[in-house]
Inverse folding.
């Protein structure tokens, strides 16, 4: 079961990069960024409300705080630039995957929930960092948008390292 | 009592119950040391300062951080929002390791006074902190 879920996550990672590789516009990049953050905020809220593991709930609350702050900056920037986020195949794929993840997590409790949530956080952050490096940063046209994407990357790397550390502890 | 020491005494009595006399630097020697929080790091991560100097933490990341002493009951900035700053003064010599409460892998240290190295080997002394001087 775990292998199937991992494969599904990896497959969707490739699908995301492939979909985004068609040189997204700044408006599409904005939609991808906002959706990616919102998806992880939603998962964090579910984990904070469901898990009884202190490390997991602390991490989940950090995801809510950090990704909300990033979205606040992103929305402020696109508003200033008068760019309207444009939903696209990648942002829709992210949202669909996020919804599936929430549905799967809602059926779990205890240690099984914690492991599934953290496994997904590891895969999700690796996926987003890959997309930042290969698609979003290279294709961002506006200098301020590109700078924001570069600036947010270390936080995502920190989240990935933290999630991997928890993943090892939960095994 | 010199005016500056008088100021520190009053300031700390207002904000902190535990206070002990320190060899405070004169106002002409009081410096501000800036720690920039950026790319999920404190930079510089180690600050060596004179007792009575000011440390200012400037959050230039997109996410909130804190500067929280590792020892329970020590200094704690609370949440420093993106773009915000927080200042403190340490009024006793010693070495005070801290981290970000939200991202525990982010670590730093404030070492105050000439006895900082000795203090690091021994049990940490209670620092006298005055937030937002």
């Amino acid at each position: 079961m775990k292998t199937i879920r991992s494969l599904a996550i990896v497959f969707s990672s490739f699908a995301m990069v492939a979909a985004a590789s068609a040189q997204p516009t700044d408006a599409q990049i904005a939609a991808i960024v906002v959706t990616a953050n919102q998806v992880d905020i939603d998962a964090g809220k579910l984990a904070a409300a469901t898990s009884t593991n202190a490390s997991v709930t602390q991490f989940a609350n950090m995801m809510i705080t950090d990704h909300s702050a990033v979205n606040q900056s992103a929305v402020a920037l696109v508003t200033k630039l008068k760019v309207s986020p444009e939903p696209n195949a990648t942002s829709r794929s992210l949202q669909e995957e996020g919804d599936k993840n929430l549905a799967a997590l809602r059926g779990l409790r205890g240690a099984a929930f914690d492991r599934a949530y953290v496994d997904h956080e590891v895969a999700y952050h690796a996926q987003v960092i890959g997309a930042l490096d290969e698609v979003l940063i290279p294709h961002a046209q506006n200098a301020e948008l590109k700078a924001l994407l570069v600036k947010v990357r270390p936080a995502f790397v920190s989240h990935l390292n933290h999630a991997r550390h928890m993943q090892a502890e939960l095994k | 009592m010199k005016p500056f020491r008088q100021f520190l005494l009053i300031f700390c009595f207002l904000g902190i119950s535990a206070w002990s006399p320190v060899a405070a630097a004169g106002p002409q020697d009081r410096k501000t040391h800036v720690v920039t929080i950026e790319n999920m790091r404190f930079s510089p991560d180690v600050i060596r300062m004179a007792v009575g100097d000011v440390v200012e933490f400037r959050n230039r990341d997109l996410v909130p951080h804190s500067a929280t002493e590792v020892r329970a009951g020590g200094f704690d900035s609370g949440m420093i929002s993106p773009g915000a700053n927080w200042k403190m003064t340490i009024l006793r010599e010693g070495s005070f390791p801290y981290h970000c409460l939200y991202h525990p892998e982010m670590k730093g240290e404030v070492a105050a006074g000439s006895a900082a190295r000795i203090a690091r080997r021994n049990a940490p002394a209670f620092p006298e902190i005055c937030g937002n001087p």
